[in-house]
Write a structure and sequence with these properties.
313 residues; MetI-like fold
């Protein structure tokens, strides 16, 4: 998986206003000012609002599919409607089994978003934990954990998840696909947190907390990790879209979700053989998938720019 350009977020050790070193004192006001400035920047960014609106739309679609499907059951099918074209009554037409395609595309949002969000949660928990330990303790611990991350980097996201899912160890369900993707997606989060922890742990307020007898866990949780959250948050936002696309790719390749599950990847896979006779079978799930990925990437890019002090006026 390609790494998004996050080096400008929180890079600043010399006091230029980045996340690292943004708080002179634990719980001080400068970190709050960072997020206040970022929000003001976001409010002026049209791309952020475009991404947020589309993102909220698809989240609502996943939570309330019956509303967006106009009460149509996606599994209520009639072969007499097979491959029916879009019409005023059925906006997306019908699939090969004669099922309402709008309902199927709408209900496909749930599995795709669950996989993307669940995988990101696992990536954040594991990546932040390993990165914090690696950067804070350094030495042999850092070397071992960094080399383990390098081993996982040797396999690209799609290829690694494909190997795991094809082996059948995890199965083919929603949780299995999410875990397979997270297994090969945590390394970037780990490296982001590691670099931030290394930069922050030598700060004066960390030394003061240590002199007051604070434990390592308290120093990490209260004084170091809050300054590492910005680049990881940007990465997580962009990665949700990347993982949703990755799930569709795995399902299209036949190693992800399987029928009777409803998924955009399954719909694209089924529709590829009907591209000449029923192009809408590929067009609509591909379009919705593209818009979903675009929404999270736009929000992530806007957040990165808002947290970059060089972008602020």
């Amino acid at each position: 998986m390609s790494e998004p350009n996050l080096t400008t977020v929180g890079h600043d050790e010399a006091g230029a206003g980045g996340v690292t070193g943004a708080t002179d004192q634990p719980g001080g006001g400068r970190q709050n000012s960072l997020w206040s400035d970022a929000w003001r920047q976001l409010r002026r960014n049209a791309f952020f609002w475009i991404g947020a609106l589309f993102g909220l739309l698809f989240v609502a679609m996943a939570l309330l599919p019956s509303v967006f499907a106009r009460g149509v059951d996606p599994r209520s099918c009639s072969l007499s409607n097979s491959n029916g074209t879009p019409s005023a009554e059925h906006w997306f037409g019908f699939d090969q089994q004669g099922c309402d395609y709008l309902a199927n595309v709408v209900y496909g949002a749930r599995n795709s978003l669950i996989i993307g969000l669940l995988a990101v949660v696992v990536i954040l928990v594991f990546g932040v934990l390993v990165g914090a330990i690696s950067g804070f303790y350094g030495g042999v611990t850092d070397s071992i954990l960094s080399r383990i991350a390098d081993i996982f980097y040797a396999l690209p996201l799609i290829l690694g998840a494909l190997v795991v899912l094809r082996s059948g160890i995890l199965g083919r369900g929603v949780v299995a696909v999410a875990i397979a993707l997270a297994m090969f997606g945590w390394m970037t989060a780990m490296r982001l947190v590691r670099s931030q922890v290394i930069a922050v742990k030598s700060s004066d307020y960390v030394a003061a907390a240590r002199a007051m007898g604070a434990s390592d866990s308290r120093i990490l949780l209260r004084h170091i990790l809050p300054n590492a959250v910005a680049p990881v948050l940007v990465y997580a936002t962009i990665t949700i879209g990347v993982l949703i696309a990755a799930e569709a790719t795995l399902t299209f390749l036949g190693v992800g979700l399987q029928a009777p599950a409803i998924s955009w990847g399954l719909q694209i896979d089924t529709g590829q053989d009907l591209l000449r006779t029923a192009p809408h079978a590929v067009l609509f799930p591909s379009l919705v998938l593209t818009l979903t990925v675009m929404a999270f990437v736009l929000m992530g890019d806007a957040l990165r720019d808002a947290l970059d002090p060089k972008q602020r006026s």
